[in-house]
Amino acid sequence: MICLRKILYGLPALICIFLLNCNQLKNNEIATADRQATTETQHLHAGMKQLTISGIMIGHQDDLAYGVGWMAPNGRSDIYRICSDYPAVFGWDLGHMENGSAVNLDSVPFAEMKAYSLQVHSLGAINTFSWHCNNPLTGGSAWDTQTPGVVASILPGGERHAAYRRWLDRLAEFFNGLTDDNNKPIPLIFRPFHEQTGDWFWWGRSHCTPDEFIRIWRFTVEYLNETKQVHNLLWAYSASDRFEQKEDFMERYPGDRYVDIVGFDQYQQAGQSNEDFMAVMKRKTSLLVDLAKEHDKLPAITEMGYEQIPYPAWWTHVVWPILKDSGLSYALFWRNAADRPNHYYVPYPGQISEENFVLFYDLPRTLFQKDIQDMNLYTHK
Ligand code: BMA
Fold first, then answer.
1. In terms of C-beta density within 10 A (0-12 exposed, 13-18 middle, 19 or more buried), how is residue 75 classed?
2. How remote is the CA of residue 132 from the centroid of ligand 1, in Å?
3. What's the pTM?
């Protein structure tokens, strides 16, 4: 059932369902970066495009794994606790999988992440994976930027290249192992080497040349798609907040044949006024959406938030004005940590923006899980 609250207002959504069900994969044209992407993955890509007509999907990182004051496994979600609905997009992070660790850098066991991802898929919602991988040269964290030449070291011919292939082998096994009841790999979004316009990760702007960045990105795509036969990925290229012009955003862009989704990550900082945040976000979002149109990509805010949401009406007064006429596919809000009391980005019961989040949820064009479950994003013909 489509959620009733949105039927009342949601004519665009109904039109969208109609379009989704009668118009897919025109002329067998393959529009995904991976030309051998599974049919379901191509459907997801086409379906996400169509969905931008009816609204913007709302996402949350680690939504099912933990939240403020609770840890899984217990099938909870801070968004569900407030709205009786789940987000439409679920973010996960693969950091530490590269080492063969059983848990990720935020203590989520990969076995559970797999189960959650399958649950998300069965709900008709979307999974996106980022990768805060360790430094392959020093063994330090993703934030270890002291040693130069790390990206160069994992390129073909580099001293850590073989090790990097082993990392990708582990990711490939995970991606290929995410299979549905029919033994088909579930489509997902992969967002590696994110925030590359910033300097805080070893793959960041001041730690490798544009050419090195582009080469490692393309190698990663080709290795997973061709060597490892992973064909359930949409590739997301996502910048940090450090870009002013299109040229800054595009400096490390790997090319249209290697990207499906373009995005950026940006947070409202403590002390930053709502007006300032809205102005910056509107300007950058419009720049992103223009770029996405020029390159025929899906635009998204791949991370967003205001830590502790100190302003009670933030969702309808700040977030919605940014998103509402943007043309974005989705916006993903960051995690509600269970072990860091002040590190949360969506409300939980009792948080000061809880009521306002429900108003935001009730807006006809914010899309949550119940709004997209009947879109048959993966299977429509
Ligand atoms: C950051 C923080 C960290 C976390 C990292 C990767 O923004 O939330 O606590 O380890 O993301 O998820």
1. exposed
2. 9
3. 0.95
